[in-house]
Amino acid sequence: MNVLQEMNKYGHEQVVFVRDEKVGLNAIIAIHNTVLGPALGGTRFWNYATEEEALFDVLRLSRGMTLKSAAAGLKLGGAKAVIIGDPQKLKSREFFHIYGKYIDSLGGKYYTAEDVNINATDVEMISEVTKYVSGTPAVSGNPAPFTARGVYMGLKAGASVKFGTDSLKGVTVAVQGLGNVGYALCEYLHKEGVKLKVYDINPATVEKALKEFEATAVKPEKLLATECDIFAPCAMGAVFNKDNVKNLKCQLIAGAANNVLMDASVGDTLNDMNILYLPDYIINAGGVINCGMEIPNGNYDVNVVNSNVDKIYDTTLKIIALAKEKQISTSKAADEYAEGIVCGLLYS
Length: 348
Ligand code: NAD
Known about the structure:
binds nicotinamide-adenine-dinucleotide; Rossmann fold; alpha/beta; 348 residues; globular; six-stranded mixed sheet
C-alpha cells in the first residue's frame, strides 16, 4: 500500500508509525484534520491480519472522526490510532506508558480515548504519562452510555420522519451487538415499549437481554432479513453491502457501529429502496461529545454533555432534510454537511 497516496485520497495531515520492540508495541496514529481544533479519536487495539488492514482501518476511522466532530458542532479535529496485536498478551502498564509517551510527543495535536479493546483502565494508564487523553475515569469516563443516548435520540428523529411520530411504542427494533452501547440502547428502547429482536456472538449477553427486555433472539443467518421496523447495527462495521441490503425488511437503519456501509454506493441503494439510513457518525456522536468536553482540560459538566447529546435529534432532522432537498442519499448529505463545516463554507 502506498501510504502517501492513501493519505492524499482521504485528505490526511499526518500519519505516525510507532514501534517499541521491548514491549511489542506496533501502532499507527492517523491525524486526519486539525482545522477546527486538536484531533480527538480513540485508540483501537486489534489483532489485524496485515499492516495494510490496520492502515486502511485507521485512515477511514480517523476521517470519520473529523466529520463526526464537525457535524456535532465541536471545535475538534479528527484522528484515530490503532495498536496492532493481541490485547490479552500485550497489555501492561509499561506498554501503555511507552504508547502514551508517543502521544505526548505530538504536543496536543492528538488526544486519545477508549475504543474497541481499550477500556477506561487502559486510558487511565496512558494518562499517567500524558495529558493528551480524554474519557478518563476521573472526568468524563466511559463514553458508551452517551453514545447510546445519542443513537436513541437520532433514532427517534428518524422515526418522526419515517413513521410520522417519534413515539417508539410498539415499534420493532432488531439490535445487532449487545455490548456497551447496544445493551444501553436496548434499555432506552425497552423503557419506551419497543419490541426488541436481538443477536450477539456472545450467547450470555443474548440470554440476559431476553430476560431483561423480553426480547426475541434472532439467529445470525436470519438477522439481516428479520422482519422489523428499525435495524440497529451496534457491533462492527461493514455490515451492509449492495447485495445483502436487498434482504432487508426494515424501513429505517440507525445504530452505533462506525462505517456500517461497505461504501458510499450502498447509501444510494438504500435510498432507492426507500429505507431511511441515519448516518453512523451523525447519530453515534454522543461519546465524542462527552469526551470532547474534557479538551483541553475544560470544565466537565454532565448536564451540558447530555443536553448537547440530545441535539443529535435536530442534527439528524437537518441531514434528512438536506438529503431530501438535494435529492441525494442521507450518507452523502451527512458528508456534505460535515465537510462544509470543516471548510467553513456552510452551516457553521
Ligand atoms: P463493545 O465491544 O462493547 O460491543 C460490541 C458487541 O458486539 C459485543 O457484545 C460483541 O460480542 C458483539 N459482536 C461482535 N461481532 C458481532 C457480530 N458479528 N454480530 C453480533 N454481535 C457482534 O463495543 P461498543 O462500545 O458497544 O461499540 C459498538 C459499536 O459502536 C462499535 O462499532 C464501535 O466502534 C461503535 N461506537 C462506539 C462508541 C462508544 O462510545 N463505545 C462510540 C461510537 C461508535
